[in-house]
Amino acid sequence: MIEVENLTKYYGPRRAINNLTFQIAQGEVVGFLGPNGAGKSTTMNILSCILPASSGTARIQGYDTFEHSIELRKIIGYLPETPPLYPDMGVRDYLMFAAQIRGLTGKKVRSAVETVIEKCSLKDVSHRIIGRLSKGYQQRVGLAQAMVHDPDILILDEPTIGLDPIQIIEIRKLIQELASSHTIILSSHILPEITQICQRVIIINEGEIAAVDTLEGLTASLRKSERLSLTVRNDNNEIEGKLNSLEQVLSVLPGEKNQFLIECALNSNLQDEFARMALDNQWGLVEIKPISMTLEDVFLKLTIEEKDVKA
Ligand SMILES: Nc1ncnc2c1ncn2[C@@H]1O[C@H](COP(=O)(O)OP(=O)(O)OP(=O)(O)O)[C@@H](O)[C@H]1O
Ligand SMILES: [Mg+2]
C-alpha cells in the first residue's frame, strides 16, 4: 500500500537519500532506524507529501505523494520531528483549529477533538496554553493533531525524543494501541524502541537502505555466528593475522588495548585453540570470554563500516 521506488533527494548538491526502494503493507507497523543524518526525516517528509523527491516515486494506495498530495493528506497523519504547535494557543482551541484545517466541519470537529484528547490523555491539560506545557505533553498534542482527522496512516518522526522514561512508556503504549487499527511508520535511532513497537525494520544509513527485515529475521542473523573476546598482555602485531588464519574465524576486530573481538562460526568452540595459541606464542593470556551479540550489534555492524571502527 506504500510503495517507494528508487527514491532520491538532493538538497542542492547534497544527496540526503539515494535510491530507496521498499514497500509497506496495510496495517503494518514499520520502524525507520538510522543514525543522525541518515535520511529518515527526509524520507518521511516525502511520504507525508511535504517535500518533493528529486527522482524516483513514492506512492500511497496507488497515488503519487507529489501529484496527489491533497487527497493523500486526508489519509495521512504526520508528526514531524518538531511538532507543528502554536505555543500561544490553548490545547483544545489548537486541536479544533487542526481539525478544521483538516476539513472537518460542524459537530464532527468537537467530537474528533474530544476523541483525540481522550486517546492522548490530554484531558487534564485541555484548557492550558501549549507553550507552558512540558515537552512530553507538547509531544502528545503533536500526536493528537496528527490523529485528529482519523487517518489510516500515521507517520511519526521520533515520537519519543526528549521525553522522560515514564512519558516514553506512555507514548509507546499509545502507539501500540494505535497499531491495531493503523498503518504506522515511525523513526528512531533507539533500537529497543523499534523492537518494542514495530514488526519490521528498515535500517537506513547515509541515505541508503542497509537492511529491511522483520525482527525475527534480524535476530536470526545473530545466530549465524558467535563472538569471543581475547585479551593479552603483550603487544604483538602478529596476533590479528594468526587469529584470522583459523578457518572458523570469520573476522577479528581489535578492541581496546590488546583486546580482540573475534567473530567465529557457530559452535566452533575455539576457546581452547586461542588459549593454546596464546601460550605457544607467549602473548601473555589475560582473558578469553564469550560476548553475546545483541540487535544493537547488528545495527552497529550495518551502519558502521569496519574501517570506521578500526580508525
Ligand atoms: N533542508 C535541508 N537542506 C540541506 N540539507 C538538508 C536539509 N534537510 C536535511 N539535510 C541533510 O540531509 C541529510 C539527511 O537528513 P535527515 O534530516 O533526513 O536525517 P535524519 O535521519 O532524520 O537525521 P536525525 O536522526 O538527525 O533526525 C543530512 O545530511 C542533512 O544534513
Ligand atoms: Mg530526523
Specify the CATH architecture of the largest domain.
3-Layer(aba) Sandwich
- Radius of gyration over C-alpha positions, nearest whole angstrom: 24 Å
SSE succession = EEEHEEHEHHHEHEHEEHEHEEHEHH
**In one word, what is the shape?**
elongated
> What does the average pLDDT come to?
89
By CATH's scheme, which homologous superfamily of the largest domain applies? P-loop containing nucleotide triphosphate hydrolases
Number of helical stretches of at least 4 residues: 12
| CATH class type of the largest domain | Alpha Beta
Sequence stretches where pLDDT stays below 50 over 5 or more residues: 306-311
Question: Helix fraction?
Answer: 25-40%
Terminal CA distance: 42 Å
Give the CATH topology of the largest domain.
Answer: Rossmann fold
Task: Please characterize this protein's 3D structure.
- The protein is α/β, with parallel strands linked by helices and 311 residues long.
- The chain has 2 domains: 2-217, P-loop containing nucleotide triphosphate hydrolases (Rossmann fold, 3-Layer(aba) Sandwich), CATH 3.40.50; 223-310, Alpha-Beta Plaits, CATH 3.30.70.
- 35% of the residues lie in helices and 29% in strands.
- The protein has 12 helices and 14 strands.
- The strands form 3 sheets. It has a 6-stranded mixed β-sheet with strand order 6-7-8-3-9-10, sandwiched between helices.
- Helix 6 links the parallel strand 7 and strand 8 (183-188).
- Helix 3 (91-101) packs across helix 4 (107-119) and helix 4 packs across helix 5 (135-147).
- The chain is elongated, with a radius of gyration of 24 Å.
- The structure holds adenosine-5'-triphosphate (ATP) and magnesium ion (MG).
- Residues 40-41, 81, 157 line the site of magnesium ion.
- Magnesium ion binds next to helix 1.
